[in-house]
Each structure stands twice: as C-alpha cells, then as structure tokens.
Amino acid sequence: MMARGSSAARADPMGCSMKVVVMRRLVVVWVALVVLGWSVSASAQMIEPYQGPETGLLRGDAYYYEGDYYRALTAYKDFLREAPDDRRAERVRLKMAWVYFNVGEHGEAARELDRLAAQAEDVIVGWWARYYYGQVALASDRRPLAERAFEEVITTCEPYVARVGEPTDDPEIRECLELSSAATLGLARLEAVRHDFDAASRRLRAMPGVSPLAGDAAEIADLVEGLEIPRKSPALAGILSIVPGLGHVYLGQYGSAFVAFLWNGAFIYAIVDSVLAGRYGQAVLIGLVESIWYGGTIFGAVGGAHRFNRDAMRVVEDGLRRDLLELYRDEPWPARFPAHPAYLELSIPF
After folding, report:
1. What is the dihedral of CA 188, 192, 195, 201, to 10 degrees?
2. Which distant-in-sequence residues (6+ apart) come within 8 Å of 146 by Cβ?
3. What is the pLDDT of residues 145-161, one digit of tens each?
4. How far, in Å, CA of 81 to CA of 93, rounded?
5. Which of 23, 162, 212, 239 holds its CA 20 to 30 A away from the CA of 6?
6. What is the pLDDT of residue 213?
7. What is d(CA 244, CA 267) in angstroms, rounded to the nearest whole number?
8. Where are the TPR repeats (predicted)?
9. Above 70 in pLDDT, residue 350?
10. d(CA 258, CA 122)
C-alpha cells in the first residue's frame, strides 16, 4: 500500500507541471494574437489616410523634392482630377504654378497664378498667388506687371499690417505682414534691375516698421543711397583715341592701348614709306586697311567705356540683389503648403 501511495504522490507533481506548461503556452499565443491584431489595426490606420487622391498629392511633393518636376506636375493634376472639390485644390494649383515656373514655362505659371489671385476662395492663397505672379513677371523681365503685382499686395495687406500687435491670433495679419515685407523687397529688386539704386533705397525705407526685416532693410538702404558708381565717358574715350591707344589708357586697358599704338604706328609708317618710295598704289591699299584698323580702335574705346559702365552697374545690382535674397529667402511653394507635415521623412514606393 505504501509503495502504491508513494508512486501516486510522485505522479501528481508531474501532472501539475504539464498543466502549467500548457497554460503558459496558451497565454503566449493569446498575447501574440493580441499584439498582431493591434499592429494590423495600427497599420491600417496609418495607411488609410494616404489612399486614393491623397497618394497622388504626396507623390507630387516627393517628385518635386527629387527634382522630377514633370512627374510632380502629373501627380498634382491627377489629384485635382480625382478630388476637384478638395479644400486643398487651390493650394495644389499654387504648387503647379511653381513647377511650371521651374521648368521655364513662365507664361503657364503666370496664367495659373493670375486665375488664383482673382478667383481663390482662400484669401491667403490668393494673396500669395499675386505675390508669386510678381516674382514670375520679374523673372520674365515683365517689369510693369511685376511692379503692379507687388504694389497690389502691399495695398491689399496694408489694413492687416496696421493691426499687427492687436490681441488676436488672426492668421491673415501674420501672412500679410510677411507678404507686405516680401513685396517691398520685390520692388527694391525691381529697381535694382532698372539700375535705379536711389529708388531701390526708397523702396527699402518704405518697409513696414513692424516688420522684422525693417532694421536690416534700412541698413541696406544706407549702403545703397547716394552710392557713387564709377563711370567712363564714351565720348571722351573716342576723342582720346584720335591718338591711337590713348582712349584705352583712359579705360585702364593698358595692354589694348599698347597693341593699338603699335599696329596703328606700323600702318602709318608703312603708308609714309610707300609714299616716299613712290608706291602710291601700295600706300592707298595700306591706307584702306589702316582706316579700318584706326576706326576699330576708336569704336573699341567707345564700346569699352559702355562695357565699363554696364559692368559697374551690374556689380552693384548683383550685390544688392544678393543682399535682398539673404535678407528674405522664400520657401519653395510646395514647402509652404505641404501635403503632409512630415513630407521630408516620407518614403513612398513608386
């Protein structure tokens, strides 16, 4: 009896151990199923917002940042075709205008921006479209159009800029302050392109005093205002070139002056020598060649004076435009209205 009881007592712990093992495995399986179900649900929630037209919008931004502008344009058009009534449609059209601008289709970009500026229901988009229209016109050398666009932005935003500092979080006030400041810099750039640097200085001083750019704009205006740009007189350069090479000395082109003096002197010597030797036909022929060379020397000096003045203006223009660009660098238009806040971190399979 004792032997049988001892054997049963020893068998019970083994049975308990098996039950514990089975229970643990069931718990592990149950936990794994719960975790798997949660992962699938979370993945579905993450993917769901990017189905349908949303995918095209994300792809358009991704293509843009890869520099593949034409595919970006196609993606944006697909989005507008699939979701024409989406609340972001006007912002997508703004992006399309920027893509057109990047591929050199300035006319198409200007037409899209002009339509948005006139018809956009989102007033902020309409304001940016008018400002960007001015940028496109300036890049296309349509200066009167650029000036009108920038001035229209400033006039439209003036009432909102006057409200800066009020206890309100109205986004239109913030946007208008930035737009008005940017449009003022656009007008200053326009005057720089015209080489009217005093006018550019006046434009900079018209920057709204509440703008964070006002102080730096005033410093640039101080540098430009009354700036003495070196100039050379084309008429004086031509008169001095009556003595071959002297006009080039006036321009500081000493190598050209030496060559002009040497060759003209050689031709004149050859003419005189031919006349003294009685070779009048040869003297006439050399004289014809010398007249061309001599006239070229005079016109070269006159042209050199014009080039000197043009280059001096361009140096100042480039410096002013560089300072203005460093003062305010606008974001790329797709970055201003991204399809998703984390657009730079997206990895979209194409």
Report:
1. 40
2. 134, 135, 137, 138, 186, 190
3. 999 999 999 999 999 99
4. 12
5. 23
6. 92
7. 12
8. 53-86
9. no
10. 67
For the record, the structure tokens of 341 come out as 């806040």
Q: What is the DSSP code string of 128-188?
A: HHHHHHHHHHHHTT-HHHHHHHHHHHHHHHHHHHTTTTSS---HHHHHHHHHHHHHHHHHH
3-state secondary structure of 350: coil
Question: pLDDT at position 4, please?
Answer: 46
pLDDT at 345 over 50: no
How far is residue 333's CA from residue 53's CA, in Å, rounded to a whole number? 20
- Residue of 294, 305, 296 whose CA lies nearest to 234: 305
- Tokens in use for 100? 């057109």
Higher pLDDT, 202 or 344: 202
Could you give the CA distance from residue 61 to residue 162 in angstroms, rounded to a whole number? Answer: 35
Q: What is the DSSP letter of 228?
A: -
H or E element, residue 229 = none
Q: Which amino acid is at 334?
A: P
**Eight-state DSSP code of residue 50:** G
Cα–Cα distance measured from residue 286 to residue 293, given in angstroms and rounded to the nearest whole number: 10
Q: With left for phi above 0 and alpha for psi between -120 and 50, is residue 168 left, alpha or beta? A: beta
C-alpha angle with apex 283: 279 to 285, nearest 5 degrees? 120
Cβ neighbours of residue 309 closer than 8 Å, sequence gap 6 or more: 231, 232, 234
Using alpha carbons, select from 291, 231, 235 the residue that is nearest to residue 263.
291
Q: Which one-letter amino acid corresponds to residue 75?
A: A
Which amino acid, 246? Answer: L
Q: Is 119 helix (H, G, I), strand (E, B) or coil?
A: helix
State the Cα–Cα distance between residues 296 and 56, nearest whole angstrom.
Answer: 62
Question: 223: number of CA atoms within 13 Å, CB side?
Answer: 13
Identify the DSSP state of 331.
Answer: P
When computed from its CA atoms, the radius of gyration of the chain, rounded to whole angstroms, is 38
Question: Can you read off the two tokens belonging to residue 110?
Answer: 């200007």
Residue with tokens 């102080």: 215
